[in-house]
Amino acid sequence: MDLYAKSKFLIFIKTLRFSRHIHYTVIFLSGYYLGLQNLKINFDYFYFFSGLLWINLLFFLAMILNNIYDKKIDKINDKKNPLNCSVKEREYFNLFLILFFLSLFISIFSGTKIFILTLLINLIGYLYSTPPFRLKKFFPLNIIIISFCTVITIFSGYLFSTQGRTFEKFPFAFAFALLFTLSLAFNVKDINDFKGDKKYKIMTLMTIFGEKKGKLIIEFLMLVAYLIFPFLIGSKKLILPAIFCGIITFYVIYKSRKLNEIPVFFIFFAFLFLYIITGEI
């Protein structure tokens, strides 16, 4: 690898949003585990590892599109973006095409349902980030789409666990409850993007209500999301953990000047893991 190629590779690595990759990986694994448990089927190494690669490819594809059309916004927000670090847009788009066809290649060998799911997720990423649609500009649709992507990731993990054959016994009631609560909680992702979103008219709670009031509303919505989830799914066991996780998350966001997403995701993962091992799904 020559020095030029090596420097570009290092830029790609440095600008990866590892917290988001971890998020989608953990959510996928949760869905995979649910499939194994609900249907009592055997673990398959091909579908497990190809599924992990697949879900990270799809997120990376969505991130590339977002980075291309958020280049100016990310510069204002001091957010890592390869296009603001000497990577050319044509190179970045060529990478997108390679990874896009790789995602299709994996899905073709994984089953018709997974292939259709691949096209759907790529379409959502396209509509979310690119003009003239650019659905990320419209609140609350932008948050609902992000929440839906998390729910569909659980569904994807479940489908891969069945080797792409069925979603029988998938807990749809849990999925709808998660979609609703995440639509409240995921506003947290907009806290660090206030300046750029405001200038380029991206509608979020931060830009609608202002920096201070918007952040306070987001903190309370995160707390409310945790508190109402056990009631939506009818689980008394999770009431105390939900209160604990909600208060801790509220405190983490409240005390942060520039929010670090990792503690917020870690608390969410711990709560999700606790829910799954209670066996109430």
Report a brief summary of the structure.
With 281 residues, the chain is mainly α.
Give a short account of the largest sheet.
none
What is the CATH architecture term of the largest domain? Orthogonal Bundle
* Ends distance: 49 Å
Mean pLDDT: 90
Low-pLDDT regions = none
Secondary-structure-derived class: mainly alpha
Outline, from the CA principal axes? globular
Percentage beta strand: under 5%
What is the oligomer described by this structure? single chain
What is the H level of CATH, i.e. the homologous superfamily of the largest domain? UbiA prenyltransferase
The total count of helices amounts to: 13
Number of domains: 2
Q: Remind me, CATH topology of the largest domain? A: Tetracycline Repressor, domain 2
Q: What is the CATH C-level name of the largest domain?
A: Mainly Alpha
Please outline the helices and strands.
Elements lengths: L2 H12 L3 H22 L5 H25 L1 H6 L12 H20 L3 H18 L11 H21 L10 H14 L8 H6 L5 H5 L1 H23 L5 H17 L5 H17 L4
Helix pairs in contact: 2-3, 2-7, 2-13, 3-5, 3-6, 3-7, 5-6, 6-7, 7-8, 8-11, 11-12, 12-13
Features of the shown structure:
single chain, 281 residues, mainly alpha, Tetracycline Repressor, domain 2, 2 domains
3D architecture notes:
With 281 residues, the protein is mainly α. It folds into 2 domains: 8-170, Tetracycline Repressor, domain 2, CATH 1.10.357.140; 177-281. The chain has 13 helices and no strands. It starts with a helix and ends with a helix. The model has no long low-confidence stretch (mean pLDDT 90).
